[in-house]
Amino acid sequence: MCKIFLLKKNLLAGLVLGSFLLLGQSIYAAFTVDTFKMVGLQSANSATPVVANRTFFIFASLEMLSQGDLENKGILSQDGLLKPYFFPNPFYMESGSTLGYELNQDMDIQLRIYNMAGYEIFQSNYLAGTMGGLGNANHQFYNKIHFDQSSFRGHDLSSGIYLFVLINNNKVIQKGKFAVKPGRLR
Amino acid sequence: MKRFFLSLLMVVVLGSSSWAANYWLLTDLGSSAQMIGIGGIEGFGDSANSVFENPASLSRVNSASLSAFTTTILGEITYTNFALANKFSFGTIGIGYMDASVGGISHTGQNTDSIGTHFSVYQFDYKNTIMKLSYEKSVTKTWFVGASLSQYRMAFDDVNGGVTNFDVGTLYDYGPATFSFSIRNFVVGKKIEFGRNDLGHVLEELLPFQTTFGLQYRMGQIDSYLQFKDNGTTNMISLGTCYRLETYPISISAGYKQFQVLDKTKDTLVFGLGLILEDMSFHYAFEKSSHLDFDNKNYFSMTVKF
Description:
The complex is a heterodimer.
Chain A: E1 5-8, H1 9-23, E2 27-32, E3 37-42, E4 56-59, E5 61-64, H2 67-72, E6 85-87, E7 97-101, E8 109-114, E9 120-126, E10 143-147, E11 160-168, E12 171-180
Antiparallel strand pairs in A: 1-4, 2-3, 2-5, 6-7, 7-10, 8-9, 8-11, 11-12
Chain B: H1 2-15, H2 33-36, E1 64-73, E2 77-88, E3 91-110, E4 118-138, E5 143-156, E6 159-174, E7 177-184, E8 191-196, E9 202-206, E10 210-219, E11 222-230, E12 235-244, E13 250-261, E14 264-276, E15 280-288, E16 296-305
Antiparallel strand pairs in B: 1-2, 1-16, 2-3, 3-4, 4-5, 5-6, 6-7, 7-10, 8-9, 10-11, 11-12, 12-13, 13-14, 14-15, 15-16
């Protein structure tokens, strides 16, 4: 079993990002941990480094990863954009969750959500240049769409897994899944 | 007495018509390609997978039966079931296991930068299972009754819960017609509990009380089916037909099925194909999907009699 170090977030982030900046290149890095992953992203075009937000975590190994590796690990999609995720996930319907995704240019987007039986339960269109259809190649826009009961005509969704796809010109450009927790907060 | 049952019915129907979601039953997908191929008609199978539908239809198992079913929905959600039934002098006993699983779901976090991009902290799997223990007994040569003990369980991330309930059903043969009536989750109001949230409140979801009435009518090589299903909030109709070729061990089926999406009732068409051999049968069912990448849903099942 490898030796395990406990490091504070700021110290670790400083060390890692400092090393990368010295290299002077556009770097993606991922820290693979025994049972969970923390992800740090740094782009040469980005003014603000993006670092995983945790106070402590177990740093087991550090890998330099190609885009292919990052696609396989579910960090980037095939076109080099951040993968779409709901946050929080899993979530309670009562508090809702926000879908975040990148596009490589402004485009019309249709979002569809499917239930466990594969039936479509939600569909919405977002016009190019508006929230939901914003994008450019420099990762400057991050679309955010909030979902709660009101998104589903006032209904809770049953607990379980739901699949979603982002469609442009009748082609699926991004997809993912989210989980709804059972019960209510109050 | 009549008034009592009417009151009970009102409580069941009105009580479950709230905005809160009920627990998703795996069996709503269907338990075999054969029954999906005729529009999701329940209760007329002749194999062990009747444990997932109407336990009284285990009467159609002649000696022993083993059945299996699988499908993958939209390339992500895998459904599997197995069932075994055996006829004894005192009745037919059946056991069944069905699950749905999904892997690679991200527990997410949000970065603290001004954009607040989302990222995957770790990944978890989802598993939803049903186990059935069923018993069928003949009351007369044409009237059968059955009951099942159902154990439900769902687990994903930090969610883990289970509950037990009962199904009851009856099957009645009348000439070329057979009537099926079943109640799923007979103990009304039972909830599946998942522990407590951070505020100490119990997390729970109501098991839906489902009633299903079906009719099968045999006319030569053609079987026709009609079904009314009520899941506590919606009434749904299914229609189906199955044609068995005379010279080949093949059956062709088609069905129309209504299903519930939130507060709306939608419908779909399904088609099926069966290869029925001496002691084995294989079935395939097809359903169109609105998903662009996975626009077909394919279901497979097999049955062995021994």
